[in-house]
Amino acid sequence: MRFRSRNYVVSWSRFFCFAAFFVSSFALFNGFSYSSFLFLFGEKFQPVLSFARKASTANAAVSSDFPVTQVLSIRETVLLPDQVILFLKYPPSARLFTKEKLDCVYLSAHNSNTSSEPRLKLSPARVEADHLGEQIVRCPSGPRGLVVTVGSESGGVLSPGPTHRWDSLAYEALVDNDNTTVLFVKGLNLRPERVSNASRFECVYGWDLSSFKRLVRSEVLSIAQEIVRCRTPLSVLNSQQKVNSSVRVSVRIKGRGILPSIARVSFFSDSGHYPLPTRKPHEVCVCTMARNQARFLKEWVIYHAAIGVQRWYIYDNNSDDETDKVIESLFDAGYNISRHIWPWVKTQEGGFSHCALRARDSCEWVGFIDVDEFFHLPSGLLLHDVVQNITSNISIGEIRVSCYNFGPSGLKQLPRQGVTVGYTCRMALPERHKSIVKPEALNSTLINIVHHFHLREDFRFIDVDRRMLVVNHYKYQVWKVFKEKFYRRVATYVADWKNDENAGSKDRAPGLGTKPVEPDDWSSRFCEVTDTGLKDMVLHNFADPENSILPWQTADGEIAGSSFVGEKKKEYK
């Protein structure tokens, strides 16, 4: 059969040949692996995400000036030991809900349809803006058998998102300066301070990690504690704009399967793809992980600014006090300080490693101390002067500073003028140390045990003379403060106070059990030597000569969590 027009003559035999060629080509093409597809098409390939279930646009809270093009959804849900974290994904140009506009909604696990009657509604513990168009909602853990989601009066109840257990999860990932991917994980149960056998693992990348055939697989270069370093596939490196925070990465234990993951590949804005300045902008920076330390942050930052610290990285570990407001007021007052939301429990080592990578291009040296720890310079020098004096040898990669533990010093109430002035009695001998490190000197495994990091082979550490520099650790404060340590320790390999493990460890309070019950003589414990060195220095350099008020106090002499932080002071001499 032929069409009559000469311009449109098509035989059935040619049609069938063409159809057979098309079908066979499609089958051959479809057999390619996902990674081959990326390598063949490179920048021209742009995936289209599809969703198994469409939700109503009624749940999107958006500005009336913009049309609704997508829906608000729960991207991930993570079950922590005592709370649930939900990651909300908003449509472009949408208004973010405030805490007051959201409810934590608990549905029956057997019938989690959003149209069903909620079994329970609670207020969120916290709502945080994480990335552009994303929020973190922290909900209380509900009764067993209930699924957690969120809802609002204007938007209804959202469909529950994919749910993950915290004890087995890849949770953060970033591309390092050498183009390797650093992956942070929970659940591998590797031994502390040991490098594990990388050949037992491989890294996997993809938009959907459940489809093994469509994943890009890559080599594990090193694995230690809770950090995996992967060789980043070229297809990921060559498509930064498209894959940043959209492609997931995890680790596969050969013979056992892939670790669940919410970790998405992200690139630093200053990730090393451009020439770095010959001199970094900051000589000394400080990194800490804190939970509910708002009332101490002002004193800690203002004091350390005066002795030479120039930059602060605060990893906020699920605070529900005014930590965010204090940091904002410090920033507005001229302090170079940033808050990084880090909701992951018992991951201080991982958080410090993450911070070391962030600070590397900006800071010559980074000190890793807690908010109740203060560098004290009996010599009267500034911190950066001491650092420069003892690191003239270029092979020095870490400065180890001895710690003195201070006790309640006879107090039963919080000291009105702050910890540096209020606590003046300590143990006679130093215990352990804290470190100031050169970020590029760190071993590629990023192994650390809070007190110090493992260094590259061509670097070494030095112990600083205690007459030049020590750490005043206000470890045993008044009972009201100290008992909060029973909530949870932040370090991965340190037992919580309520556990019976390692009862004789130095990480515990000598003579104190596992219950937060105040001993009768608590205020007089841990007092062997009176030490007013830092107190005298603080009063001399910071106190207002007219009323003796310190800059971290309010006008009536109290230390308030979110009051305004005055204009930044100059370094003292």
Automatic annotation (TrEMBL):
Enzyme Commission number(s) of this protein: 2.4.1.-
The record describes its membrane topology as: Single-pass membrane protein
Citing just one GO molecular function, the answer is: glycosyltransferase activity
The keyword Transferase is annotated on this UniProt entry: yes
Question: Where does it localize?
Answer: Membrane
Q: Keyword Flavoprotein: yes or no?
A: no
Recorded GO CC terms: cytoplasm; membrane
**Pfam families attached to this UniProt entry:** Glyco_transf_92
Q: Which domain of life is it from?
A: Eukaryota
Q: Which UniProt keywords apply?
A: Glycosyltransferase, Membrane, Transferase, Transmembrane, Transmembrane helix
Where it mainly occurs, coarsely classed, is membrane
Catalytic EC class: transferase
Q: Which family does it belong to?
A: Belongs to the glycosyltransferase 92 family.
UniProt xrefs under PANTHER family? GLYCOSYLTRANSFERASE FAMILY 92 PROTEIN
Q: What name does UniProt use for this protein?
A: Glycosyltransferase family 92 protein
Q: Which organism encodes this protein?
A: Hibiscus trionum
